[in-house]
Amino acid sequence: MRWRRARQQNTEINPEDIFIDSANDATFDRARFEGRIERPLSHTTFLALAGVFVVVFGLLLVRAGYVQVVQGDAFARQSAQNSLESTALFAPRGIITDRHGAVLVENIDANKGTGTGRRYLMPQMGQIIGYVSYPKKDSSGHYYDTEITGVAGLEAEYNEVLTGTNGRVLVEKDAVGDVRSSGMIVPPRDGSPLTLTVDASLERHFAEAIARTADTAGFIAGAGVIMDVHTGDVHAIVSYPSYDPNVMSNGSPVATIASYNTSQGHPFLDHAVQGVYVPGSIVKPIVAAGALTDGVITPQTQINDPGRLAVPDPYHPGKTYYYNGWRALGIVDVSKAIAWSSDVFFYTVGGGFGDQRGLGIDRLDHWYSAFGLGHTTGIDLPGEASGVIPSPAWKAATFKEPWYLGDTYFTSIGQYGTLVTPIQMVRAAAAIANGGTLVQPRMLVAGTPTRTAIDVSSAALTVVRQGMRQSVTGALARALDVPYIEVAAKTGTAQTGVHNEYDNSWVIGFFPYQQPKYAFAVVLERGPSGAGEQSVNVMRALLDSLKRDDSTYVGGSGAPTTTAGASAR
């Protein structure tokens, strides 16, 4: 029973019960069972392994002690310099396109480490579109300016719209400043796009016509605007010479930027919006509209133009003041006076002479102001100039002198202290074309056009438009008498320089004549005396190129006719 109980209690088999102990079996073939049986660790092997363990452990202890005691401070400093930084991930700005979706400004992958940059595809629009300033770093490489900022033009005007929202990226740097790892924690959000009213094709043709004419004829600068007479949409706006916004945004080449600063054409000035010029005779349609509306003249009123106006001095008998015209034109009515730009007619209508009463300076100022002169137009471009409309108060403040009748005469023909901008004059031309409504020029296709009615007679404007059409069909703007589109225009020449040795050349107008859609204004600055017709030639070159390459504005296609020469006043 005890054996039975013992057997029952021993229910497990130990390895030694079944494995052969080779040390106690002299007949055991060790080679045969090598790798398949256990063998006791020899005393020598055990001591060798123990020795290796002691040596390795000792070396580790020594190294740990050296690092902790001897190099502890150095590693502590390096550890303190390892850092995680949250830095800006710069958002791409909104792209800018023309009215048809053609890209004018796009983003590129990288610029100076900002992750995004700008590429300007129409550098001739430098002052209009503007340029940007990229984020800046301090000497340690940290950004202290984290925005891509619009500096000029539309980039500045709509900076808040174009600017996106920067993202954030977490960057791990080691003690020497090298990036160990990075990960985006907040993605950037792109800025909103802008769709301009500008037509890139028309803009390109217009810019080429102005640049080519100015360079050929010897003008230092020029500007032009083409605008929808009903909406105020600016389809083309040119300022020449321009700067390359790619150069300005990148800050190089430095030599090119230096040449901009010394150019007599002032490429940083937006000549279409910020440039102010003596208008000369292009204000005569406004004076005519005012005089007809006020009843100073009728469409049938005739005035003799002998080439000059001789005005006796009421305070000094026998003394006469002469106000010269550009040529003797004989008997003229208001339409012919506009077409042939009669100075004597408008001297008389503005200031009065003999039995013919004039508007007087107060009503002249009223009508200039009513057509938008002397005021900003509200166009969405920065730095718009308001110009100057002379008045007795202005003269007293500026020169400390009283106002004379001769000042009224000269103001009547756009001389003396009168200063206007091209954007003002295209707006005035549009008001004449559309029947007496001032539209606010705009650069974006958005919202409802802003319109202001002028209290002017529609019959008066009809007469004025007839005079402007006659200027094209048989007078000073004959270069614009083309078979494929009916144009109405008024030319103007203003002498500048210390000795009146230079000419500014102007033309304003609209087309088509019967159902006007577009108004235009062109000025060429400081050309040689006698070059007053060149602004008309700009418009002729533009119309011919549009006829040939782009039927949107003049209709059809075909070879342009030869540009005819014409005088202009």
Structure explained in plain terms:
The chain is α+β, with helices and mostly antiparallel strands and 569 residues long. It folds into two domains: 84-195, Alpha-Beta Complex (Penicillin-binding protein 2a (Domain 2)), CATH 3.90.1310; 200-554, 3-Layer(aba) Sandwich (Beta-lactamase), CATH 3.40.710. It has 20 helices and 22 strands. It has a five-stranded antiparallel sheet, sandwiched between helices. A four-stranded mixed sheet has the order 4-3-2-11. A three-stranded antiparallel sheet has the order 1-9-10. Helix 11 (284-294) packs antiparallel against helix 18 (458-474) and helix 12 packs across helix 18 (458-474). It is elongated, with a radius of gyration of 42 Å. Mean pLDDT is 87; it is low at 1-7 and 557-568. InterPro entries: Beta-lactam/transpept (IPR050515), Beta-lactam/transpept-like (IPR012338), PBP_dimer (IPR005311), PBP_dimer_sf (IPR036138), PCN-bd_Tpept (IPR001460). It is a single-pass membrane protein. One of its GO terms (molecular function) is penicillin binding. Residues 222-543 form the Penicillin-binding protein transpeptidase domain. This is Penicillin-binding protein 2.
Strand content: 15-25%
Write down the overall geometry. Answer: elongated
Taken together, the total number of domains comes to 2
Low-confidence stretches: 1-7, 557-568
* Termini Cα gap: 145 Å
CATH architecture of the largest domain: 3-Layer(aba) Sandwich
The CATH fourth-level homologous superfamily of the largest domain: DD-peptidase/beta-lactamase superfamily
Task: Give me the secondary-structure category.
Answer: alpha+beta
Number of helices: 20
**Beta strands, count:** 22
